[in-house]
Amino acid sequence: MSRNTLHLLPSGLALAIALTSVPAFAQATDEDSDLPNGEIVVTAAKRSENLQDVPISISAISGNALAASRANSDDDLVTKVANLQLTSIVGDNTPIFALRGVSMSDYSLNQSSPVATYYDEVYKGNFAFLGVAMYDLERVEVLRGPQGTLYGKNTTGGAVNIISRTAKLGETTGYVNLGYGNYNRMEASGAVNAPLGDNAAIRLAGTFARADGWFRNVVPGMPDLASTREYGVRGSIQFEPSDTVRFTLRASTSYQNPRNYGIYAQPEDINRPGLSKFEIASDIAQRRRARTYSVALTTNIDVSDTLGITSVTSWDKGKLSFYEDTDGTASQLLEIPYYDRASQFAQDLRLTSDTGGPFDFILGAYFNREKVFNRTTFEIGKDIDLTGDNMVTVDDCVEGLTNADPTDDGIACLFRNSFTQVKKSYAIYTDVKYELNSAITLRGGLRYTHDTGKQSDFRADALGVDESLVATLIPTSSLSYKTDNLSGKIGLDYNLADGNMIYASVSRGFRAPSFNAQAFFDPSELSVAKAEKVTSYEVGAKTQFAGRSVTLNMAAFYYDYRNQQFINVDPSTAAQTLLNIPKSRIYGAEAELTVRANDMISLHSGVGLLSSKIIDGTVSGTVVDGNRLSNAPSLTFNASLDLTVMDNDTGKLSLHPEMAYQSSQYFEVINVPRLQQSGYAILGAHLDFETADGRWTASIWGKNLTNKLYFTSRVDLLAGFGFDYNHIGTPRTYGASVGMKF
């Protein structure tokens, strides 16, 4: 089956037909934009440009559109962006993004995704830095393809840029929103902007949410899982001492301590007898905790009318800990507490020209230092009495290690590892463009990257249930790497007489080596995965028609994917090794279309097509050549309608139905048939009212209206532990909110 589905796109002709026959709609709308037809300004190429003038495959969504559609978590972006997927194996608000089939097949808390996440140009690589981000936003930009030149961190898959609203001079404005929903969801968000004299201003924004868990726990006295309990606060100061110097200082913190997610264990008749689809029997009550702190200073200096200097200096600190009931049952077969503590310092410095002539450039330097401490414990069979004395003590762990088959009677041990990891990245980069004539522009860029990493004080022990030491399985060890990379991009833009553009490019991205965080049982599990590389060949078009009321953007691509980093789980022993899949290929396309029929009706949508195939790879002794990559559905589609029902002196009433569909996919590369996620659609809608003066708003909303059960990650543990490990998506949620602007 896996090979047959690879032929969804059998020829270039079929691809062209698909792009022109499927209704696809762009999401590049911004109610606050000063451009005609609500077009959006992006900074994807480190310059403020109209989205239609940037020769990159980008989806841009305004903050207003995100807020109206209840996209209050990074996880919600996947229903709005073609060819964007996620794995939620680490939990809500800590997504592992996949873009065009390039993904991170590793859930270890020390890893960094090949799809980089940025908050206001600051790279957030570790899960401990993510926190609560989706509030008081200007927009979100999703860049597809390798980011091997301009962006702070060299990545193979793409970038998600979350851009917050900053303080504005001379304005005293603000808003507050309050809401209530099912599962007793209570939420509040707001912001206030105030001047600080003539040359400065401050903006304070915050969000708060609390909800009961939607995964109902049937164990008496135990709390429901997958709740919400979080807040975030962000402050920014804008200071402009002169017309040529601007400082933006941002500081933020967030805290989350909900009940952790639940695991949907299969087969149901063994692991979930008598339970409905959103019920669980769990013996874990601990809360998930995530705390973040962030400070960043952005400095812009106009050296002359044609040259500008930009500096982004940032510091981040975060902690993430949670206790996972891995077996998804009230037994103590397999449970895993995770702990991640991280800090980073980063500096991005660049010189940008804007001559107005045929030649312009960006020249920059980047440094990032990230320090991570991880501790993970495999708790296996804590309630198993192997000695027969009617007690579970350290002696049962000794007995289990000495005599028991872990796939038979169990182990009755805690297997714990811990280590410190320090990674440094140094880079020099440049991006240039040269207008050969009024129609043709040549673009290029190079980036030299020097990365180093050290994993120190790695140790793994077997402990008794009282945490007393039984055996040291991996003595204190250290690993390191040092690597250099030269990546780049070359492209050509052709501007048509009607203002539309077609472009072609070849680019390469690089992802630094990684350390295995899941070694527990033997020193041979310690390893460094090789650097990952993607070479991309892409063609695209940015077009507008009918007086710019119709926008159609398209792109087609081919990826040569080398050494994808992959965590391999042996289903019979749970031993985990970090591997590389030597070679894969991906090809596909996206199309996004916005149609503004009139002032009352707008339609937006996107379609993504993918064909992925492993050319050379072996996992758990199984040759996976010809298999599909994980998190790479052949088809993704999203659509939304903005329909104004009433617009008069009383106010404006509008209806916004939306849907997102994805075809079948795997979450692992062996392509186990029973673990395939079949295709599914998610439906949502919101009904909004705004008074004629724009001061008051009210909304009724719903998400996953059909209460669809779908998986967001799946792991085969059936052979060794008797269950398949699954995460599931959020069920139906709905509610109402009111807001006031001042």
From TrEMBL:
A motif (TonB C-terminal box) lies at residues 725-742. PROSITE patterns: TONB_DEPENDENT_REC_2, TONB_DEPENDENT_REC_3. Gene3D superfamilies: TonB-dependent receptor, beta-barrel domain. It comes from the Bacteria. Pfam families: Plug (PF07715), TonB_dep_Rec_b-barrel (PF00593). InterPro entries: Beta-barrel_TonB, Beta-barrel_TonB_sf, Plug_dom, TonB-dep_rcpt-like, TonB_rcpt_CS. It is a multi-pass membrane protein. One of its GO terms (biological process) is iron ion transport. GO terms for cellular component: cell outer membrane. It is found in: Cell outer membrane. The keyword Signal applies. Its main location: membrane. CDD domains: ligand_gated_channel. Residues 247-705 form the TonB-dependent receptor-like beta-barrel domain. The keyword Transmembrane applies. Residues 51-159 form the TonB-dependent receptor plug domain. Keywords: Cell outer membrane, Ion transport, Iron, Iron transport, Membrane, Signal, TonB box, Transmembrane, Transmembrane beta strand, Transport. Residues 1-26 form the signal peptide. SUPFAM superfamilies: Porins (SSF56935). Belongs to the TonB-dependent receptor family. This is Iron complex outermembrane recepter protein. It comes from Novosphingobium mathurense.
